[in-house]
Amino acid sequence: MTRRIMLAIALAATLVVGISPAGAAPALGRVVSENPVDWTPHILDGSVWAMTVVGDTVVVGGDFTTVSSSDGYTEFDRWFLMAFSLSTGAVTRFAPWIDGPVYALTPGPDGTVLVGGDFTEVEGVPARSLARLDVATGRVVPGFTASLRDGDVRALAAGGQWLYVGGRFDTIGGTPRAALARVDIRTGAVDRGFDAELDAPELDRVKVEDVAVSPDGKRMIAAGALMDAMGEYRPQLAMFDISAPTVKLADWYSYVYEPKCRKGFDTYLRAVDFSPDGSYFVAVSTGRMSKSGLLCDTAARFETYGSNPHRPTWVNYTGGDSLYAVAVTGSAVYVGGHQRWLDNPYGHESAGPGAVSRPGISAIDPKSGRALDWNPTRSRGQGLRAFAVTPRGLLVGSDTDRLATEYHGRVGLFPPA
Length: 417
Description:
Layout: H1 3-15, E1 42-43, E2 48-54, E3 57-62, E4 66-68, E5 75-77, E6 81-85, E7 102-108, E8 112-117, E9 121-122, E10 125-126, E11 130-134, E12 152-159, E13 162-168, E14 171-172, E15 175-176, E16 180-184, E17 207-213, E18 219-225, E19 228-229, E20 232-233, E21 237-241, E22 248-249, E23 269-274, E24 280-285, E25 298-303, E26 314-317, E27 323-328, E28 333-337, E29 341-342, E30 356-357, E31 361-364, E32 386-390, E33 393-397, E34 402-403, E35 406-407, E36 411-414
Antiparallel strand pairs: 1-4, 2-3, 3-6, 4-5, 7-8, 8-11, 9-10, 12-13, 13-16, 14-15, 17-18, 18-21, 19-20, 21-22, 23-24, 24-25, 25-26, 27-28, 28-31, 29-30, 32-33, 33-36, 34-35
């Protein structure tokens, strides 16, 4: 390791201050390697909250300000957004000026990226928490009109001509919508025919933490601080039938997330992802487990179709540590957070009988629900928040700089094995 990289490690350690793209991940035939590539750039401060891939470009969002090349010799100012080549790791010129953190990203049409977060303008153009940018230039795409009145965007998922927007808001594009809306992916025009009617009478405010669209474009899931959807009881998890122009609440429901976790975690779902074939999805949660049997601090698989009310096919418990991100690739279910263990239903902030050490990043067998042997390790920090899956492997984004015992500043890529 060069002296320059050692200096970058020290700098990163002094700068640490510390909300994935939704939708189904591409299938990967095998579990990825435990050894990340050596040529990805490093983010030197803050946290990564979102990652997505547009062509050969990886776009990264969060609350960071400084990036370095993979060798540590060149530093770049990159406030809340940066991009690099998926082929070479070179930091690109994509450097739009934005005045607040980015929490969600998803590819748009014609080489663009949709950006959600908690900001008010991009490149001097008013854009409250939602914008469409050209990946080559970083410029705002003119004519995209979706904007919040207040609040933030925490989740984005593309489905055909539509962009599904989730977060903490009550108005988008001048149209009243509680925490979830559908807008034209090119223009941002709100679909006035779709209102999820999310409500949470027991909570302070409705909030969507994640959205995912099935690979066939027929189903959409919203997860977060919600209790009702379209007049029906849907605790923390609502599925919608989006196969026709008129969106309907899907005939799918589950009550397993109805019980409360520890005080302060009345709602605790954080991320969802469909399998590549769309037959099931996996949800991950926080919650600080208070007693066995609840789905706090877990990963859980649910079948997309079948008899109601749905129960999880399997549940994997961390034993009291939060999971924030999930990517389902077919060969594995990758989960990230600040977990210390998996296979730990009897642990209470401890390793119970049968627990296996899986710090910060883990892989679960999609069929059995048991932890796979894959265990690269990651320094835990507050937690891993972002995955992006491509044929080149598994991209990860977090708030720490040790991945597989190597220095990787908040960004890494595990290639196919």
